[in-house]
């Protein structure tokens, strides 16, 4: 059992009650199966510290998203030495906090946290889809001897839930064969999106999603020149504005029931990616406030 450090409050906002906050930020600094660059364990803390530098007014939305009420939950005391137990802890925690009144935002940590989060969502919600933004399809049955690898993050959920993957530019032949057999997995490959990413493509993505949507975003969906601080970088990828465009349209047209932002792996001395990660999360909160809380 490793107790984590103090949890900075998102945006440096004064602490408040979870009850009168609409947005819950939950850090899951889990890292056990990363295979390339290490460091996602430091992700949530780096994002939260960078968020102190956010401008709370958003010029695009002409709004102050923070006024929605953001509660930063203290770090989960995960059993980091025991992956199975840590995943159960994340699942149980998630199950207890999710409802229709709050918007949970989970910060990783490696992508394996999504497997545990989705177990809880599957128990609580009858019908929803997953919007998965990532360079990797993460649909392997097992990887390096474990089914709890970051490379398998979406496999279990894909056996029951509709998944729309966006930005994929790395997958194994085994995954390709698996996807071929399944009708509930739709992939928008990056090489295709680089030819055409417009309103028609986004509309098509939306058409493939159910009314209720859970978003899981691996920071490596971005082009590494914009977002280099990831565990498994891949050339190509979406831009800042492409991702914002997609997120905005999803919030405008669907009911988003939760989101996670994973695989952020800070680079010591390079602050920009930490700030970009914080800004992306704040943008997401802004879209939630503006489009999901409409009367
Ligand atoms: Mn990835």
From TrEMBL:
One family from Pfam that matches here is: Arginase
Which note does the record give on the cofactor? Binds 2 manganese ions per subunit.
Annotated residues that bind Mn(2+) are located at 111, 134, 136, 138, 218, 220
Q: Which GO terms describe its molecular function?
A: agmatinase activity; metal ion binding
Question: Some GO term, biological process aspect, for this entry: which one?
Answer: putrescine biosynthetic process from arginine, via agmatine
Cofactor(s) of this protein? Mn(2+)
**Keyword set, alphabetical order:** Hydrolase, Manganese, Metal-binding
Question: What InterPro entries does its record include?
Answer: Agmatinase-rel, Ureohydrolase, Ureohydrolase_dom_sf
Give start-end ranges for the coiled-coil region(s): none
Q: Which family does it belong to?
A: Belongs to the arginase family. Agmatinase subfamily.
List the protein's name: Agmatinase
UniProt organism field: Dictyoglomus turgidum (strain DSM 6724 / Z-1310)
């Amino acid at each position: 059992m490793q107790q984590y450090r103090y949890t900075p409050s998102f945006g440096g906002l004064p602490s408040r009650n979870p009850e009168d906050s609409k947005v819950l930020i939950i850090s899951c600094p889990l890292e056990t199966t990363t295979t390339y660059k290490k460091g996602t364990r430091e992700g949530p803390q780096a994002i939260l510290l960078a968020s102190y530098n956010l401008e709370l007014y958003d010029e695009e939305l002409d709004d102050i998203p923070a006024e929605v009420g953001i509660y930063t939950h203290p770090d989960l005391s995960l059993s980091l030495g025991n992956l199975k137990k840590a995943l159960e802890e994340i699942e149980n925690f998630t199950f207890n906090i999710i409802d229709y009144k709050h918007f949970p935002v989970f910060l990783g940590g490696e992508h394996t946290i999504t497997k545990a989060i989705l177990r809880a969502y599957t128990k609580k919600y009858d019908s929803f889809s997953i919007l998965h933004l990532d360079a990797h399809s993460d649909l392997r049955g097992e990887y390096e001897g474990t089914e709890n690898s970051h490379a398998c993050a979406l496999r279990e959920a894909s056996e029951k839930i509709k998944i729309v993957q966006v930005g994929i530019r790395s997958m194994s032949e085994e995954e390709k064969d698996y996807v071929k057999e399944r009708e509930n997995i739709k992939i928008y490959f990056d090489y295709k999106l680089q030819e055409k990413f417009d309103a028609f493509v986004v509309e098509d993505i939306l058409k493939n999603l159910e009314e209720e949507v859970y978003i899981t975003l691996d920071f490596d969906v971005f082009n590494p020149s914009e977002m280099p601080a990831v565990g498994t970088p891949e050339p190509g990828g979406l831009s800042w504005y492409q991702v914002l465009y997609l997120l905005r349209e999803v919030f405008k047209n669907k009911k988003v029931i939760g989101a996670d932002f994973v695989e952020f792996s800070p680079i010591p001395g390079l602050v920009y990616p930490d700030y970009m990660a914080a800004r992306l999360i704040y943008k997401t909160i802004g879209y939630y406030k503006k489009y999901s809380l409409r009367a």
